[in-house]
Every structure is written in structure tokens, then in C-alpha cells.
């Protein structure tokens, strides 16, 4: 069991695994100051003082050698263990910035004094943090850490006051119509193809009977947004079990508002030019390019130029829009989500 940090300790890193044969470990950073892992600095590993012997930065983590970890066997046993510092050693922050530990479990209220829940998780993105607010009976509410949303933070009272912009309304945790239809289709498929324990396996004399649908992109159009036509290429009743794809034709000036998904998204640009917003960055993306959007990264786009755009959108899950959170505004049929 991983020891919990003491109340006066602040987590600056988490051991995620061993690296090499000499006791080096991979560290997931939980601090904006990676120099805390510079050689010679002292940290606490599960509350025990340890000295950093060496460190190098990789793409998504640090590789660190600590004097308390002599070999790979010890390193492998520490996955998930915490590196901390005393709270008194924290660098002071400006008045409008806060450490994550100060915000976690903080109660969140709307500007008309309605309790929205408590912050259960903080998602770090390149542009701004996103606060995950949980409340029993409601879907998770994702709040971007923006001045237009977060009005006041009172650390002493563990209370945050926010303004819910359009698209950030709290939604009861009911099953969407689309998800309910998909679940019924999956149940019917399972019933039709189930094999009982008493059935006898027979040689496959009809390999051509295996279902491998060829899908027309002009079928299965779903209502979406003005000047934005969308067709679901995959359906749960065509045998697809773990992915989804959509084909869209979008007019100049139309697009998608800022939002996040809980899964990866790939957007393949076939025609036209998209002005893509990822957090506060703007990119223009044309044909023969793919936009790769990791989970929970705020993004949106607008079609620019002189012609409509045609795109393919791919997700490694079914019914991805049931897991979409709009930070500015939802689609025209968002009551379906």
C-alpha cells in the first residue's frame, strides 16, 4: 500500500516505474518547478529523506536516480509511491494562482450561490487547468481555469465561486437517448449471436457469411449544427464494438465550439481549411493533414477560406459525444447528449 503524505507535505512527483538496471526511476511531475529534482536536492520518498543523484528530462517525465534506490528491484517496487517536500518550502505564488492541493476537495458554488459540487481532479492542459467538479446524481462538470469562469477562490474557507458560461450548465446523470438506442442494439446483437454451453462447434462452411459491411457515407446523417452536416459512418448494429467514425461537410464560418472529449480524437482533413483552436493556440490545417487531440484537451475549430471542408473524425470508443463536455456551447441537438 502506498503511504499517504503527511498533512504538512506537498506532492511534487510520483514514481511511475523503473528505468534501466541501476535504480533510476521515471517520475511524473506534480510541480511547475522541475529544478526541485536537480542533483543534490533533498526530497522525501514516502516520508524518508532522499538525495537526488542525477536527473534528466524525457518527453513526458523525468528520469531520476535517488540515493534510497540502489537497484532495479527496489525501483520496480516503488510504482505509485510519492515524492514530497515540506509545505513550508513551497515557492510563493501570485494572488491569482494556487497549488493543486489547495483546490482539491474545494466546494464550488455558482455566482447565484448554488452548490455545484467539489473539485475531485485537476486536468492540466497546455493552455489552462480544467477543474473536474463532482456532485452526486450529476455528470462531472468540467470548468476551465479562466478568469471569465472562476470569480473567487477562498482557500481558507475551501470555497470557489464560478460563473457558468453557456454550455457549462450542470446536467443530471441520465442515460442519453443515443446511448440508450446503442445499448439496445448491442443487446439485440448479443442475443442473436450468443452460443450456449450445450451447442456443438461445427466447421465453418460459410466463411462468406461473416459480416463486414461496406458503408455509404451518404447514409445515417444526424442533425448537428447550422451549415454543418454530419454522417455517422459506424453504428453499433454493424458489428463495431470499440470505435466510431463520422464524416462531415462543413460550410465556411461554421465549426465546433471549444470542448473536450474523454478519449483520443483524430480529425482527418480531406478538403478545405480548418482554423483550429487548441487552448489558446491557433493553427490553420489543410488537406492531407490529421489533427491529433489527446483526451481532455480543450479544442474547437472554424472553417476558413473560400470552400466547404470535408473531414473524417475517429474515436477509439463508441458513442464519443456522450463523453463530450462543451466549454462554450453545445451542438444543435445537445439535448440528445
**How large is the radius of gyration?**
25 Å
Q: Total strand count, please?
A: 23
In terms of structural class, how would the helical and strand content be classed?
mainly beta
CATH topology of the largest domain: Jelly Rolls
User: Treating each run of at least 4 consecutive H or I residues as one helix, how many helices?
Assistant: 3
Number of domains: 3
Series of H and E elements: EEEEEHEHEEEEEEHEEEEEEEEEEE
Stretches with pLDDT under 50, minimum 5 residues: 188-211, 332-337
Largest sheet geometry: 6 strands, antiparallel, barrel
Strand order of the largest sheet: 1-2-5-4-3-6
Q: What CATH architecture label of the largest domain applies?
A: Sandwich
How do the helices and strands line up, and which of them pair or pack?
Elements: E1 9-19, E2 24-29, E3 42-45, E4 48-57, E5 62-66, H1 72-76, E6 82-86, H2 100-103, E7 107-110, E8 115-124, E9 129-134, E10 141-144, E11 150-154, E12 159-162, H3 177-193, E13 221-225, E14 228-232, E15 244-250, E16 255-261, E17 265-271, E18 273-278, E19 281-285, E20 289-293, E21 299-304, E22 309-315, E23 324-326
Parallel strand pairs: 7-12
Antiparallel strand pairs: 1-2, 1-6, 2-5, 3-4, 3-6, 4-5, 7-8, 8-9, 9-10, 11-12, 13-14, 14-15, 15-22, 16-21, 16-23, 17-20, 17-22, 18-19, 18-21
Main features:
6-stranded antiparallel β-barrel, Jelly Rolls, 337 residues, 23 strands, Elongation Factor Tu (Ef-tu), domain 3, 6-stranded mixed sheet
Amino acid at each position: 500500500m502506498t503511504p499517504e503524505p503527511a498533512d504538512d507535505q506537498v506532492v511534487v512527483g510520483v514514481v511511475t516505474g523503473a528505468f534501466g538496471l541501476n535504480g533510476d526511476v521515471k517520475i511524473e511531475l506534480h510541480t511547475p518547478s522541475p529544478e526541485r529534482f536537480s542533483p543534490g536536492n533533498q526530497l522525501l520518498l514516502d516520508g524518508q529523506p532522499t538525495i537526488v543523484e542525477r536527473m534528466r528530462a524525457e518527453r513526458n517525465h523525468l528520469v531520476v536516480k535517488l540515493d534510497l534506490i540502489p537497484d532495479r528491484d527496489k525501483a520496480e517496487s516503488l510504482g505509485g509511491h510519492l515524492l514530497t517536500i515540506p509545505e513550508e518550502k513551497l515557492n510563493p505564488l501570485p494572488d491569482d494562482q494556487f497549488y493543486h492541493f489547495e483546490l482539491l476537495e474545494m466546494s464550488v458554488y455558482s455566482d447565484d450561490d448554488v452548490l455545484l459540487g467539489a473539485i475531485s481532479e485537476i486536468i492540466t492542459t497546455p493552455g489552462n487547468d480544467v477543474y473536474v467538479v463532482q456532485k452526486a446524481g450529476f455528470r462531472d462538470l468540467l470548468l476551465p481555469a479562466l478568469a471569465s469562469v472562476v470569480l473567487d477562490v477562498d482557500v481558507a474557507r475551501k470555497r470557489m465561486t464560478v460563473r457558468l458560461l453557456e454550455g457549462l450548465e450542470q446536467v443530471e446523470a441520465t442515460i442519453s437517448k443515443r446511448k440508450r438506442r446503442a445499448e439496445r442494439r448491442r443487446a439485440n446483437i448479443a442475443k442473436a449471436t450468443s452460443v450456449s454451453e450445450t451447442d456443438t462447434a461445427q466447421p465453418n462452411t460459410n466463411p462468406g457469411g461473416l459480416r463486414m459491411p461496406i458503408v455509404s457515407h451518404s447514409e445515417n446523417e444526424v442533425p448537428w449544427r447550422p451549415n454543418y452536416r454530419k454522417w455517422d459512418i459506424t453504428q453499433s448494429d454493424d458489428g463495431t464494438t470499440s470505435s466510431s467514425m463520422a464524416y462531415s461537410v462543413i460550410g465556411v464560418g461554421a465549426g465546433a465550439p471549444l470542448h473536450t472529449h474523454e478519449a483520443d480524437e483524430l480529425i482527418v482533413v480531406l478538403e478545405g481549411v480548418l482554423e483550429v483552436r487548441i487552448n489558446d493556440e491557433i493553427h490553420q490545417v489543410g488537406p492531407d493533414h490529421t489533427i491529433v487531440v489527446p483526451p481532455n484537451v480543450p479544442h474547437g475549430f472554424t472553417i476558413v477560406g473560400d470552400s466547404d471542408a470535408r473531414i473524417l473524425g475517429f474515436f477509439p470508443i463508441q458513442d464519443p459525444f456522450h463523453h463530450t463536455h462543451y466549454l462554450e456551447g453545445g451542438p444543435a441537438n445537445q439535448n440528445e447528449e
